[in-house]
Design brief:
The chain has 296 residues and is of the alpha/beta class. The chain is 41% helix and 20% strand. It is built from 10 helices and 14 strands. Strands 4-3-5-14-6 form a 5-stranded mixed β-sheet. A 5-stranded mixed β-sheet has the order 10-9-11-7-12, with helices on one face. The protein is elongated, with a radius of gyration of 23 Å. It starts with a helix and ends in an 8-residue tail after the last helix. The mean pLDDT is 90.
C-alpha cells in the first residue's frame, strides 16, 4: 500500500495530542489540512482512526493499533535525522532511568561524560525500571539503566551489568530496636513495611520473595520514592525496604535488619534496543559505565 509518509506524520501528531488544533500548530499547517489528511489516510486504510465528538477526539481501536507501530517508526526517523545533522559531533545523549538510579548511581558517570564531551546535550527521562523498557522499545531513549530482574525486559536488550546490589530492610532503632535480632520474613511481616509501589521492579522482587516462602506480603505503605520511604522510616512510621546503594550519610540514623532467609542479589544493567543502531554518544557513555561479572 503506497501511503505518503506525511499522512502518517499528521496521524502521529493528532494521536499524540488528541487534538487537531494542537497538531496543526506543531506541523505549521491549517487545521483543515490536518483534518483532510486524516480523512485521506482513513480512506486509504479503509479504517476509522479517530472517534470525533464536539468536545473531544479519541483513538478508535484501529487508531490505537496503528499508533503502536507508527510511534517507534517516527522516533527512529527523528533519531536518524538528528544523527545526520550532528554528523560532526556525537549528538544528544538520551538516557532513561528511575529517580533512585539517577541519584545514587548515574550522577558520577553523567559528570564524567559531561566533562569529557561538554558540547553534547544530555537528556534524562525519569521513569520506573518497568516503564523504562517501554521507552527503549519505542526508541524514545538511546539507552536505559534499570534494576534486573525486570519482567518486561527481553534478554536481547541487555548490554552490560554495571553493578550488583542487595536489598535491605532498615529501621530507626528508637522506634524499632531490632538491629540485634535475626528476623524471619514471617516475623517482619508483623511490622509496618514501607516499600515501593507495584509499578516497580523492587516491588515485584519483594512480593515474589514472600510468595516463595508461602507468605502474603502486607505492606503498610507503598510509594514511588525511595527517598520518601527513608524519610518515613526515620520518623518511625515503619520499616523501609530499599536497595543498599541508597545507604548514605542521610540514612545514618537507620539500621539494617538481619533477615534469616537469604536475600538474592539483584543487578543494575544497561540496556539498548537491539533492533536499532547504538548512537555514538550512547556508545561513549556505555563505555564509561563499570562492568561486573554476573550471571543473569
Amino acid at each position: 500500500m503506497d501511503i505518503n509518509y506525511e499522512l502518517y506524520k499528521v496521524f502521529y501528531q493528532v494521536a499524540s495530542s488528541l487534538s487537531f488544533s494542537e497538531a496543526s500548530k506543531k506541523l505549521f499547517i491549517s487545521q483543515s489540512a490536518v483534518s483532510q489528511s486524516i480523512k485521506t489516510l482513513e480512506k486509504k486504510l479503509g479504517q476509522l482512526l479517530f472517534i470525533r465528538s464536539t468536545k473531544k477526539v479519541k483513538l478508535s481501536p484501529a487508531g490505537e493499533m496503528l499508533l503502536k507501530h507508527i510511534e517507534p517508526a517516527i522516533h527512529l526517523i527523528q533519531r536518524g535525522e538528528s544523527q545526520l545533522l550532528d554528523a560532526e559531533c556525537l549528538g544528544q545523549l538520551h538516557i532513561g532511568a528511575s529517580d533512585t538510579i539517577c541519584r545514587y548511581f548515574l550522577v558520577p558517570y553523567l559528570k564524567q561524560f559531561h566533562e569529557t564531551f561538554p558540547s553534547v546535550p544530555i537528556k534524562v527521562t525519569n521513569a520506573t525500571s518497568l516503564k523504562c523498557v517501554e521507552l527503549i522499545e519505542q526508541g524514545k531513549v538511546d539507552l536505559i539503566v534499570t534494576n534486573y530482574p525486570n519482567s518486561r525486559m527481553e534478554d536481547a536488550s541487555l548490554y552490560k551489568t554495571t553493578a550488583s546490589f542487595q536489598d535491605v530492610f532498615i529501621a530507626n532503632p528508637a522506634y524499632f530496636p531490632l538491629e540485634q535480632k535475626e528476623l524471619s520474613l514471617e516475623e517482619l511481616n508483623q511490622y509496618p513495611i514501607l516499600m515501593l509501589d507495584k509499578k516497580s521492579t523492587t516491588s515485584e522482587f519483594l512480593y515474589r520473595l514472600f510468595l516463595q516462602h508461602q507468605l502474603e506480603l502486607r505492606p503498610e505503605i507503598e510509594l514511588s520514592s525511595n527517598d520518601f520511604l527513608i524519610d518515613l522510616a526515620k520518623i518511625g512510621i515503619g520499616i523501609a525496604f530499599i536497595p543498599d546503594y541508597c545507604l548514605t550519610e542521610h540514612t545514618a540514623d537507620l539500621k539494617p535488619l538481619h533477615v534469616r532467609e537469604e536475600m538474592p542479589k539483584r543487578q543494575l544493567v544497561a540496556a539498548v534496543n537491539p533492533s536499532l543502531p547504538i548512537s555514538p554518544s550512547a556508545r561513549e557513555f556505555l563505555a564509561l559505565l563499570p562492568s561486573v561479572e554476573e550471571t543473569l
